[in-house]
Amino acid sequence: MGLFTKAVHSETRNVTATLLYYRKMATPENRKEEAPAAISAHYDVRLPKLPWHRRMQIPVIAALVFSVIRTVGPTLRFEVLGRAKVEALWAAKQPCIWAFWHRVILPMAWYGRNLGIVVMNTTAFDGQWTRKVIEWLGFGTAQGSSSRGGLRGLQVMAKRIAEGLDCAFTIDGPRGPRYVAKVGPVLLARMTGVPILVLHVGVERGKTIEKTWDHFLLPGLFTRAVIIANEPIYVPKDADSEMIKTKHEEMQKALERVRDIAEGWFAMSEDERNRYRAQIGP
Q: Which of 181, 198, 249, 267 yields a CA-CA distance of 20 to 30 A from 242?
């Protein structure tokens, strides 16, 4: 827990300043789509200058990654536990905030395609080709990350939620540490009043690419997959920094729980799986 505790303190250090910023941005004169001047890195969403050869790589990498997702995705056979929670929110015309580990971005990208979900996306090189891929899959994007442009990204996400769209975070991205959740979804939930829904995907057959920081999961073709969703997490709109820290820790534990269940799903006996089906629900 040492690494997570250190990350929590780092993420919540500027919570008060963040909340003051959003109170200011909520005024009518500030409700504009254009990015503000880059006063600090927290809302600087200008694209970094890249050499020409890196710029040329962006569409090539995007096309290759998209082709992999389009090849693998249609062959996956999903079982979803907890989907009824999402459908109940949608039936009540209430969007939600999806949060999942970067490791499972491929199967989650396929599962959530064409729903108009808005994803926080870094402006760095990796984020520029990733943006093309997820937009081709029917996602929206809000430029920003935990290190650069995050406030601006959250502002855009809050507007999209007000329009009725879901938002999503690859919660330990864009560069880790692996399995340490950023605080962004908690701040967005406080701003908007909508719940956080944490998820994880497990597959029967697949390859973990251990050389990547996130231990990227590449599912096998025609494999079974399970998505586990946790109970929605609500954050009071008047939450102070201590409450935000508490909700951040609650989200971290929920992410770890659904990860452990999903990753172990296909090693369980059918009786064990049935117990979870009854506990979590369809």
A: 198
* Residue 32 resides in a domain: no
Sheet containing strand 196-203, edge to edge, reads 77-81, 224-229, 196-203, 97-100, 167-170, 118-121, 140-143
On whether residue 31 sits in a domain, the answer given is no
40 falls within a domain: no
Model confidence pLDDT, tens digit, residues 199-219: 999 999 999 999 999 999 999
Domain membership of residue 138 (yes or no) is yes
Pairing mode, if any, of strands 224-229 and 196-203?
A: antiparallel
Cα distance between residue 199 and residue 229, in whole Å: 5
In angstroms, the Cα distances linking 32 to 28, 152, 155 are: 8, 11, 10
CB 115 within 8 A of CB 138: yes
Per residue in 173-198, is it b (16+ CB within 10 Å) or e — as a string? bbeeeebbbbbbbbbbbbbbebbbbb
CA 154 to chain centre: 12
Residue 79 sits in a domain whose CATH number is 3.40.1130
Identify the band that residue 150 occupies on the pLDDT scale cut at 50, 70 and 90.
low
Which 8-state DSSP code applies to residue 266? G
